[in-house]
Design a protein that fits this description.
It contains twelve helices and 19 strands. It has about 400 residues and is of the alpha+beta class. The strands form four sheets. Strands 5, 6, 10, 11, 12, 13, 17, 18 and 19 form a nine-stranded antiparallel β-sheet that branches. Helix 1 packs across helix 2 and helix 7 packs across helix 8. The protein is globular and about 55 Å long. About 45% of the residues are buried.
């Protein structure tokens, strides 16, 4: 890939993705796959005004080794220096940039039950720090190609060409091939126009149906609104949390989901794939689920805590989105969730509540935003999916017909 194009992508992530402010620290979390690009992004963050950029490297095979040899007690304990790091982030509020390049099968064979128990024990320790950072810092998840991820998508190509092909697909989906800053300004505005129309309807529930058997009704919070595209911190700094993104999303009301929903794409979680699954909800809670592949992992996700049995997000994405029309299954939620409508189990988003800036997290949760240690997106959109909204005044308004928007925005 041409360095000039990669430089534009790096500048997009620094200036629009996390939108580094003068004097701000930046934490970059990334794999070992693209060190030259990480160097580019680091430099662009400094050019944007960063006072300090910290890069934290990850390596899936090493994660498997740690999982095998560390005791559960060790995995579940934060040492003083680790607690000090969390305290630093909660106090300083650095930008957080995640560059995903993981092998979709990279954690296969790892003891997932052990990892789950460690995460459950750590969560009460980490949660107070995360709550302090909620809606106060810029963050962005984007992607760079890894060799094993590229070969998973393009097995017929040699390694080098597979990586180059994946670079092309990532950059195209991320609108980074030509004038990316301008392209993202226009794209974000288009998403927000759709959100504005949805919010004008005063929706009280969404009813999803499809020929695969999906028949699910999800209740909405009266004080909630649809979001999409760029977001703002409580301090008013605009940023793009996901590059790419095609969704309009909202946090539904905990306890108000009835019916069954079927997945339409594999879910890649913890380096493993869950395929062809369904979840049935009663009074908002997942009460029955089945999967043709990796049902045990699906069970672990749903049973992480009480909140993981409930929905935290409803996201609307047309079946003819640019990512879907590539015909590529990315085996990566960042991309696959933008190829189809999706739901998420677990944590909801406080910033989907009107006037959330003046509410505490407890007040937001009391309104019906779900709280959990997980947020797990899974794709449910299909070519024949229909979605109807029931509004506060009793009208039924078509939102999706045959997998795409049932309305136009001027």
């Amino acid at each position: 890939m041409k360095k000039t194009v990669l430089r534009e992508y790096a500048r997009l992530l620094a200036q629009r993705g996390v939108n580094v402010q003068k004097g701000q620290e930046v934490f970059i979390f990334t794999g070992l796959e693209q060190p030259e690009f990480v160097q580019m992004v680091t430099e662009e963050c400094y050019k944007a005004g960063a006072s300090k950029v910290v890069v934290e490297w990850d390596y899936q095979p090493l994660a498997r080794v740690h999982n095998r040899y560390r005791s559960l007690k060790t995995m579940s304990t934060l040492n003083r220096y680790e607690l000090a790091r969390w305290e630093h982030m909660a106090e300083v509020l650095p930008c957080r940039l995640i560059l995903d390049s993981e092998d979709p099968d990279g954690l296969k064979g790892m003891n997932q039950e052990k990892a789950m128990k460690a995460r459950q024990r750590l969560y009460p320790v980490i949660k107070p720090f995360r709550d302090r950072m909620e809606n106060r810092q810029q963050w962005c998840i984007a992607a760079v190609p890894g060799v094993k991820w590229a070969k998973k998508l393009f097995p017929e190509l040699p390694k080098g060409k597979a990586v180059e092909k994946l670079w092309e697909e990532i950059l195209t989906a991320s609108r980074a091939m030509e004038e990316p800053l301008k392209a993202w300004e226009q794209h974000s505005a288009e998403i927000q126009r759709r959100c504005a129309y949805l919010n004008s309807l005063n929706i009280r529930s969404l009813h999803y149906t499809a020929s695969n058997g999906t028949d699910l009704t999800v209740g909405m919070i009266e004080q909630a609104h649809f979001c999409g595209g760029s977001e703002k911190t409580l301090g008013g700094v605009e940023f793009e949390p996901n590059i790419p993104t095609e969704e309009c999303f909202i946090s539904p009301k905990r306890g108000e989901a009835e019916g069954i929903v079927y997945s339409t794409m594999p879910l890649c979680s913890r380096g493993q794939l869950i395929e062809n699954f369904s979840i049935r909800f009663e009074k908002g809670r997942a009460v029955e689920w089945h999967a043709e592949k990796n049902e045990e992992l699906l069970t672990q996700i749903i049973e992480m805590d009480e909140g993981s049995h409930y929905l935290g997000e409803c996201a609307l994405v047309p079946y003819d989105s640019p990512i879907r029309t590539t015909g590529i299954l990315f085996y990566n939620t960042l991309f696959d969730e933008n190829a189809a409508c999706h739901l998420a189990l677990g944590m909801g988003f406080p910033d989907t509540i009107n006037d959330f800036e003046h509410k505490t997290l407890d007040e937001v949760h009391a309104l019906g935003v779900n709280d959990s240690m997980v947020h797990e997106d899974f794709m449910i959109g299909s070519k024949d999916m229909n979605i109807d909204a029931v509004t506060a005044d009793g009208r039924t308004v078509p939102i999706f017909r045959d997998g795409t928007w049932a309305f136009e925005c001027e």
